[in-house]
Amino acid sequence: MKKDTAQTKEESRVVFYNDTVEPTIPANVTPKTPLDKLNLNWRERDLPEKERTKHVHRLHPYLGKFIPQLVEIFLRKYFKPGQTVLDPFSGSGTTLVQANELGINSIGYDISAFNIILARAKTKHYDLETVHYEVLDILEKVRQATQDEAQQMTLWSAKKKSSKKNKENEYLKKWFAPQAFHELLAYRDLIENYEDQDILKIILSRSARSSRLTTHFDLDFPKKPQTEPYWCYKHSRTCVPTDDAFQFIRRYSLDTLKRIEEFATHRTNAEVQIFHEDSRKAHIPYVDGVITSPPYVGLIDYHDQHKYAYELLGLEDRSGFEIGAAKRGSSQKAMKSYQEGIAEVFQNVLKSMPKGGRLIVVAGDRHNLYGEIGKMCNVKVEAIIQRHVNRRTGRRSSDFFESVFVWRKK
Question: Pick from 63, 284, 333, 360: CA 20 to 30 A from residue 236's CA?
């Protein structure tokens, strides 16, 4: 273990990086586990992708989320069942899901309308019989309307309504082949007939992501539609663009049911509240502490990664309120604005926390911005744990370091 200490008039800061013991098993962590005994540097063999994306955590791809095991460790160390944890950048809902597993109440805020749908879909306490019926029923209706020639008229009125509604939507016409376009709209226009609409919207969105006219190896941020055969680096062969969506709707419907049923065996009755608000300005109820992973400066445009969902579902775009958006870059001006935005969130959050309450903040701080953010928020820096990330799905496949800041309210 490497240990570096630095003294100031305000505080004693201890930086930990531990790779001398086996990586920490989350279930073994207790409130008495010393911070300097945590080894958060999991390798693929220590923590395979199947575990990092267990049950509802894989309902929909999401760039920039932290792994549930990291959240679980700090929930076990600093929170008790019945207490309330806040994530002011709740994103795909990782903190909320893990808190529920441990019987801890949770509150999440996010400005992205899609993120709110995703987090609510993950954390809802479903009637399994009802959701099973609805997912399979809408799947069958779409199959009849789009796959059986003899029954193509079954949803003709819905198709006509969809075509008229999306006549001017150039994005959808540009990124989907005609058959895929028809299948997605047929599914979307049936959602309003069901009770569990959020989960159906997530199945639709996940299917749309996979059925866009793009290469198989560039699903995160494709720059232009792919309409011709191409050499696929993912499959090491020539592939052709996808021209239908129903294959994905069927696959993800079954996968979603499996994941919901699996989470049902782990979830508790702990309360989950999710708000579509800007956490800089929101009136936040009392919480015992925070576990969050804010956006990294200049890295991801969180609304744009789900552009297809916004267009299909007609969601409100609040991308102008994103903190640290990639489109704003990482100039000195952008970094200063980022610091101010993140600090404003935490200053607002601290009003609803007890003295001594902890903020656990996971951030890739390669620009060294969080020292100043901590000072702006007047928190005590209890520790900083450096974590080597050498395995990450999605956009970032190379290794990097991120910091876990353990702050306390003075």
Answer: 63
